[in-house]
């Protein structure tokens, strides 16, 4: 497969797991570390009570045949116990063990699930602040895989299976203790059992780990291709490329299935080896135990206890290493998500003070966060914009998308931006929001620059990047609609009453949406607003912009793909609500910017002309006509 020069290759991990992932796991459980330790103690105690029943039954067996030479005559505290006493003791131990184990399993499962959720939230928090170049150079399927398949492996282990792993670990420790209490003669056999099982696990560990890592990587291309296909389904059908895309998807799925089979075969071979070893160890234990009884070294009760625990040990060790293998699959998921957790976020971005993980990213203090939220720097009707010597490129090897652009927009001005495809109109929008780092130059709003780690001037004024961006509202050509209620789609980060919401929605032209009574503010919108028309989506974005009430409004060809009626609604709403605000309109149809105060004409990333609509539009039309002849 040919890899695009603009796409980063998938990271392949090898060797041992890094310390970073164990540090991340520690941070995930830090919130309830004490509770977790208490739960582990209760779980260990619960398993001890349950497993000790075997020792009690062994003593009971010796008590029943105490006059026989193969039974121990030294029953210690159990010497004067009756059958009913043994029975009551078994009931007490079983009841306590079951209750403690139940508390342990429920508590650990809940804490494990909560830890996985914290890990997911913290990773999402950082991914949402990654530089835009990351999303440009990584296929969507690769990102989806991290938050779906890899995270699923973590959640599968963090619930019930986590308590299973811990319970099995408790059992192995208790087997040593309880066999020592029954008879030390069986201890070498127990050690041999553990050693042989560990040897088989060691023999298969790195192979299974490698196959699981390869399996995680093989999911990405299929998911990425599927996402791209669903997004471009209409185009694929129009150009009759259904079969080509289907075949390509089948090839990627076949690669995944092939890797899945290799992984399953590897795990099955491991399980088969453990099964053969288990049968061998049971035979050795039985033969050795009978010899000890015949020689008088151990009683029949002690043999029963030892045989029970060694038989359980073989099975438990097999289960333990199978769980360890599953745990390694979860650790592979942690490893892959942990890579996202520690990636560099965009320059100037900060994490909120509520962040729970320390990953060497800058975190706002409570005072800084409060100061930003209460800041009134941009809490005004309009704002001026100064762009000085601005140059922007999307990567080190690409040509400049903006080349030494300078202009000023006064407070309350309405500015139009025109240019041919590839002239730099979209790049100007990216620059105003600081979505990509500048090669040179600056963008100032009311005299403030965004703090993006640049060299500070002694007389310069700088403001948090998030606050800087919040001063600009965007109505994009492609409306952004989220799965959720209409209310959630309209409100971004302000507390707004339902009355204000309805008023603004109707002014924005959404009156018809609520007129039939089928849709209210609590109406649940499907993903991407599938049930809404393009015009309705754009009107929702307009209402959202009005409610955001930012001093600067940027419209990126907002009317280019809607019908004339909806366009008229949008224009009327902007005239009524945005009057007096600083407006920047990226034009698709020149008629939409004829009433602007000034027009900026961009071409090949350079500012060609800045002047009145009449002057610039006439020059632009003349230029277009000359290019056609």
Query: What profile does the largest beta sheet have?
Result: 6 strands, mixed
Assign an overall shape.
Answer: elongated
Assign the CATH architecture of the largest domain.
Up-down Bundle
CATH class (first level) name of the largest domain: Mainly Alpha
Query: How many E-type strands?
Result: 13
Lateral arrangement of strands in the main beta sheet: 7-10-11-3-12-13
CATH homology-level superfamily of the largest domain? ABC transporter type 1, transmembrane domain
Specify the helix fraction band: 55-70%
In what range is the share of β-strand residues?
Answer: 5-15%
Structural domain count:
2
At CATH level 3, the topology of the largest domain is ABC transporter transmembrane region fold
The residue-averaged pLDDT reads 81
Based on CA atoms alone, the radius of gyration comes out at 34 Å
Write the layout of secondary structure elements.
Blueprint: H1 19-29, H2 33-64, H3 83-127, H4 132-137, H5 140-158, H6 160-182, H7 187-231, H8 233-238, H9 242-295, H10 300-341, H11 366-373, E1 385-392, E2 402-409, E3 414-418, H12 425-432, E4 438-445, E5 448-450, E6 461-463, H13 465-470, E7 472-475, E8 484-485, H14 486-490, H15 498-515, E9 524-525, H16 534-548, E10 552-556, H17 564-577, E11 582-586, E12 598-603, E13 606-611, H18 613-628
Parallel strand pairs: 3-11, 3-12, 5-6, 7-10, 10-11
Antiparallel strand pairs: 1-2, 1-4, 4-5, 8-9, 12-13
């Amino acid at each position: 497969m040919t890899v695009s020069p603009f796409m980063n290759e998938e990271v392949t991990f090898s060797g041992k797991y890094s310390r970073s992932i164990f540090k991340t796991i520690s941070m995930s459980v830090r919130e309830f570390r004490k509770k977790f330790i208490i739960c582990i103690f209760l779980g260990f105690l619960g398993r001890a009570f349950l497993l000790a029943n075997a020792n009690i039954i062994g003593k009971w067996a010796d008590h029943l045949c105490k006059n026989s030479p193969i039974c121990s005559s030294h029953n210690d505290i159990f010497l004067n116990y009756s059958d009913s006493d043994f029975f009551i003791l078994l009931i007490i131990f079983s009841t306590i063990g079951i209750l403690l184990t139940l508390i342990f399993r429920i508590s650990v499962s809940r804490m494990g699930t909560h830890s996985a959720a914290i890990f997911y939230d913290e990773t999402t928090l950082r991914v949402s602040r990654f530089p835009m170049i990351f999303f440009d150079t990584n296929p969507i399927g690769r990102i989806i895989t991290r938050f779906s398949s890899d995270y699923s492996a973590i959640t599968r282990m963090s619930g019930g299976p986590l308590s299973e792993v811990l319970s099995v670990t408790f059992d192995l420790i208790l087997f040593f203790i309880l066999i020592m209490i029954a008879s030390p003669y069986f201890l070498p056999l127990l050690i041999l059992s553990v050693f042989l099982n560990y040897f088989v696990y060691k023999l298969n560990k790195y192979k299974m780990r490698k196959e699981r890592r390869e399996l995680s990587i093989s999911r990405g291309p299929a998911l990425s291709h599927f996402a791209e296909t669903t997004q471009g389904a209409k185009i694929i059908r129009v150009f009759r490329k259904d079969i080509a895309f289907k075949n390509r998807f089948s090839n990627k799925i076949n690669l995944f299935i092939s890797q899945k089979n290799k992984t399953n075969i590897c795990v099955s071979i491991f399980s088969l080896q453990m099964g053969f070893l288990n049968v061998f160890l049971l035979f050795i234990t039985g033969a050795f135990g009978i010899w000890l009884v015949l020689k008088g070294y151990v009683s029949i009760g002690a043999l029963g206890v030892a045989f029970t625990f060694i038989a359980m040990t073989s099975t438990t060790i097999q289960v333990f290493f199978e769980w360890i293998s599953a745990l390694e699959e979860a650790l592979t998921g942690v490893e892959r998500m942990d890579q996202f957790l520690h990636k560099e976020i965009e320059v100037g971005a900060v994490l909120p003070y509520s962040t729970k993980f320390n990953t060497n990213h800058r975190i706002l203090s409570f005072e800084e966060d409060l100061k930003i939220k209460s800041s009134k720097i941009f809490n005004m009707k309009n704002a001026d914009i100064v762009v000085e010597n601005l140059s922007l490129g999307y990567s080190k090897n690409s040509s400049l998308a903006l080349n030494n652009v300078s202009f000023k927009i006064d407070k309350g001005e309405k500015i139009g931006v025109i240019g041919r495809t590839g002239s730099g109109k979209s790049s100007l929008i990216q620059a105003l929001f600081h979505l990509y780092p500048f090669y040179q130059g600056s963008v100032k709003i009311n005299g403030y620059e965004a703090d993006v780690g640049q060299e500070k001037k002694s007389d310069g004024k700088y403001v948090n990047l998030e606050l800087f961006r919040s001063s600009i509202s965007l109505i994009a050509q492609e409306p952004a609609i989220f799965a959720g209620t209409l209310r959630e789609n309209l409100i971004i980060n302000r507390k707004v009453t339902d009355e204000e919401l309805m008023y603004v929605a109707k002014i924005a032209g959404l009156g018809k949406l609520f007129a039939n009574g089928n849709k209210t503010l609590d109406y649940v919108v499907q993903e991407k607003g599938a049930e809404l028309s393009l015009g309705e989506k754009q009107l929702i974005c307009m209402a959202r912009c009005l409610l955001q009430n930012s001093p600067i409004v940027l419209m990126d060809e907002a009317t280019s793909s809607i019908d004339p009626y909806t366009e008229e609604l949008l224009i009327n709403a902007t005239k009524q609500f945005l009057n007096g605000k600083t407006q920047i309109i990226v034009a698709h149809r020149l008629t939409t910017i004829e009433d602007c105060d000034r027009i900026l004409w961009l071409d090949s990333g350079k500012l060609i002309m800045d002047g009145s609509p009449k002057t610039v539009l006439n020059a632009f039309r003349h230029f277009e006509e000359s290019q056609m002849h």
